[in-house]
Structure formats: C-alpha cells, structure tokens
Input
Amino acid sequence: MMEELARYRCVGDDGTELVVLDRRHVHVTRGDQGARRQLGARRLSLISGAAVRYIDATTFELVETGEILRRIN
Output
C-alpha cells in the first residue's frame, strides 16, 4: 500500500502548474500483539504517475524529460 505524505504545487519550465506527490510504501502486518506498520521507500511522482527527482527543498526534476519544477508557496 502507498501512503501519501505531501502534495507540492509546482510550476514547470513552460509555466504549467503541476502537483508533485510524495508517497511511501507501507506494509501492515498483524500479529498477536496487534498491527505493525513497516515503512518502506519513498517515491516522488506527478499525479499522472511520471517519476520526479528531488533536487532541493523548492526544486524537482521530471525524470523523463529533465524539466525543472519549482514549488509554489
């Protein structure tokens, strides 16, 4: 299962507004002592599913095209 941690409003090189999702894998196991959450890798992507790379706190890169995405506050 994927858990959404955050959504970042961004603008691309051409002025298009996009949303970057910050998600992580979560596996829930159930045992005698109750449920336990095991946290996995985080993943950045657009809502469309396109992979995004983290550059710094205000900048991302669209992996497929190299387009720079800047956060809008």
Q: What stands out?
A: The mean pLDDT is 96.
